[in-house]
Amino acid sequence: MTTISREFIRRTQKHSGRSIRTGPLLAPAVGLLFAWMIVPLALTLWFSVQYYNLLEPLSAGFAGLDNYSYLITDDGLLAAVFRTLVILFAVLALSIGFGVVFALLFDVEFAGRGIARLLIIAPFFVMPTVTALIWKNLLMHPVNGLFAYLAKLVGLAPIDWFVQIPMTSIIIIVAWQWIPFATLILMTAMQSLDREQMEAARLDGSRGWSTFRHIILPHLLRPISVVVMIETIFLLAVFAEIQVTTSGGPGTATTTLTYFIYNKALLQWDVGAASAGGVFAIILANVVAAFLIRTVARNLDN
C-alpha cells in the first residue's frame, strides 16, 4: 500500500470519527422534526378515542373504539374514500399522459420553445385557491364563463359544470395544476436520453410508436414512478379546489375523505369522529404509499 493510500485512509477515518461526534449538534434539529411529526399524530390518536364534540362539552370522556365504529357504519365514509381514489387515479392518468406528450413535443427544437416551456410549467406555481377561483368564475361559469361563451357561439347549451358534472370539473382543475409538474420532470428526463441510441434505432428502421415503446418509454419509467409517488402524497389531500368550487356538493357528490373529515371537525364540531377519520386517512395514505413504493422499487430493479 502506498504512502498516499495510507494517508487517505487515515484522513477518512479521522473525518468519520468527527462525523460521529456531530450527533449532539444534530440532536436539536432531529428532535424538533420528530416532535413536529409525533405530537400531532399522538394528539390525533388521543382525540380519536375520546368523546369530544364542541357542541356537547358535558359529554366528554373516553370513547374507546366508538368513534371508529361510528365512522365505519357511516355510508359517507366509503363514498368519500371512493371519490378520493377516483380523483387520485384520474389526475395521475391525465398528468402522466399529457406530461409524456408535452415532454416529447418540447424535446423537439422549434421557435419560441423556451417561452412555451415557461408557459406550460406556469400553472404549477399558481396557488390552489386562485386556480379554483379562475376556473370557477372565468372559465366554467355557466353564464359569464369562457366555456359558456364558446358553447353559445356554436349553438350549444352551456354546461353548468359544478352541478351537472362536478367530479369531472374537480378532476379537470386539479389535473391542470399537476400536468405542469409531470411535464417538468419528464421533460428533464428526456434531456438525459441517449441520442446515439435514438440515432442507431432510426438507422435500423425504428419509427414513431416503435421508438417510443422500446426506447423512450423504458427511459421514462423511473421519472414516471417519481411523479406518481409525489403526486399521490398531495392528491390524497385535495381540499382547496373542492372548498372553493363545490363545497363538497351538490349534496355529497364531491365530498372526498379530506372534505369528509373537515365536515366532521369544523361543521359538526365532532373532534373525536374527525380525529378517527384522520387516523383512517393516515392508514389509507400508508397503504397507497406502500403500494407505490413497491411499484417504484420494481421499476428501479428493472
TrEMBL record:
Keyword Isomerase: no
Keywords per UniProt: Cell membrane, Membrane, Transmembrane, Transmembrane helix, Transport
One GO cellular component term: plasma membrane
Coiled coil region boundaries: none
Location relative to the cell: Cell membrane
Keyword Nucleotide-binding recorded: no
Domain named ABC transmembrane type-1: residues: 81-292
Membrane topology: Multi-pass membrane protein
Superkingdom of origin: Bacteria
Single GO BP term: transmembrane transport
InterPro entries, per the entry: MetI-like, MetI-like_sf
Ranges annotated as spanning the membrane: 25-49, 80-106, 118-135, 161-187, 220-240, 271-293
Similarity field: Belongs to the binding-protein-dependent transport system permease family.
Record's protein name: Sorbitol/mannitol transport system permease protein
